[in-house]
Amino acid sequence: MPLSVLDSASPQSQTHWHGFTLLEALVAMALLGILVGLAAPTLSGLQARQQLQGQGEAFLNSLVLARSEALRRQQRVSLCAQGLEAQCDTLGRWHQGWLVFADANHNGLRDSGEVLIEARPAVPLAMQVVVSNTVKTYFSYNAEGRSASANGAFMAGTWRFCRAGSNQGWQVVVNALGRPRIEAYEVQLCS
């Protein structure tokens, strides 16, 4: 008599269950926990680096926005460190966030009646923004899209985004023509 495919359903076949014992499952979970514990510091460092880069890119985007708005509106547009009630912080604490506004009176400060184009929130607490002295309190673009101070001289500067304990940061550099760029840099001291 030929063998049939249905022979496995005969009462003589036995079902074997395959699985894990409780001890095997606990050992696997312990190994998984160790591996996750080893990977967590690496992932948090990656997240911190991404956060720094994200803040630098947000600032770069604000500079590009200010330049394009100056050209579009045919008037001076400025950025400043954000103070209280959407006003400029005269001490230049850029870590509190920043404002982009139409600077009708060319003073680098947002006065009542001047159009607020963008307001960016404060950077995360562990992060610092270190700024060159030439752009300590504000940065402006004139109607031709060139960087210009209140007295008409060119402006150039650097904003460095860093975190204490990290050896890499991101900086936004604006040249004398007003063209911004972003680049990684090696942090010597973040304060």
What count of domains describes the coordinates? 1
Indicate the mean pLDDT.
87
The CATH homology group name: minor pseudopilin epsh domain
Major sheet strand order: 3-2-1-5
CATH class: Alpha Beta
Strand tally is 8
Number of helical regions? 1
Q: What is Rg?
A: 29 Å
- Describe the biggest sheet? 4 strands, antiparallel
Query: What is the beta-strand fraction?
Result: 15-25%
Structural notes for this entry:
The protein has 191 residues and is of the alpha+beta class. It has a single domain, classed as minor pseudopilin epsh fold (3-Layer(bab) Sandwich), CATH 3.55.40.10. The protein is 27% helix and 24% strand. The protein has 1 helix and 8 strands; from the N terminus they run H-E-E-E-E-E-E-E-E. Strands 3-2-1-5 form a 4-stranded antiparallel β-sheet, with helices on one face. A 4-stranded antiparallel β-sheet has the order 4-6-7-8, with helices on one face. Strand 6 and strand 7 form a beta hairpin. The longest helix is centred in the first third of the chain and has 52 residues. It is elongated and about 90 Å long. It starts with 21 loop residues before the first helix and ends in a 5-residue tail after the last strand. The model has no long low-confidence stretch (mean pLDDT 87).
Fill in the keyword field for this structure.
single chain; 191 residues; four-stranded antiparallel beta sheet; 8 strands; 24% strand; elongated
